[in-house]
Amino acid sequence: LIRGPHDSTIIEGSSVTFQCRVGGDPMPDVLWRRSANGGNMPLDRVHILEDRSLRLENVIPDDEGEYSCEADNAVGAISATGTLTVHSHPYLVIRPVPQVIEGIRDASFECKSEGRPKPTTFWSIEGNRTLIFPGTKFDRFETSNTQEGLTVLTILQTTKADNGLVVICSAVNSVGSISVRARLTVASQDDLPPPIIILGPTNQTLPVKSVVALPCRAVGNPTPIISWYLD
């Protein structure tokens, strides 16, 4: 074996080549394998080059693992292994969404990031350079992590002055970064439109002991609470 594969770390979506240059008399046959615990060889994206190197196109995180070059002839056999590590840009699986609240109370925004290596997630407020990391507090803003992996920003005791506030969830790793914004709307009772019943019950005449269904669907902000009364 003149030159075997080396460990490689690449970014998702790019290509990688594992070398396997061999010599011998007679010339050895070359076979590429993927380690048993790494899954199947992605044959639709694999090419064997003229020098018997292995080229893997459009790499994905599932391609991580060990790739072995095995050479053998009538005299003997030899092998060498290279490990592939795939890094990917951070992305948000849960994004903060705009919040509309009424009165003086706490408001919370949720965010969850993934990527390779694992991203660092933090919050900031538009117009303010302070970064708020999980487990820290800045003024009335505090952050925490949940067991489900969420990073939560809580704004304590919001007031009318917080109306229009924009919070930013950011995730960063060695490959790149991503940021998503969400706006807080603080409304008083007078600012909010009344709920609207979009599907209400209608008069019905039925036989005794029969079953009746009375629909009621309503929309509004905040979401209305539906109650039934017998007159």
TrEMBL record:
It holds the Pfam family I-set. Gene3D superfamilies: Immunoglobulins (2.60.40.10). It comes from the Eukaryota. GO terms for cellular component: axon; plasma membrane. The keyword Disulfide bond applies. InterPro entries: Ig-like_dom, Ig-like_dom_sf, Ig-like_fold, Ig_I-set, Ig_sub, Ig_sub2. PANTHER family: BASIGIN RELATED (PTHR10075), FASCICLIN-2 (PTHR10075:SF100). This is Roundabout homolog 2.
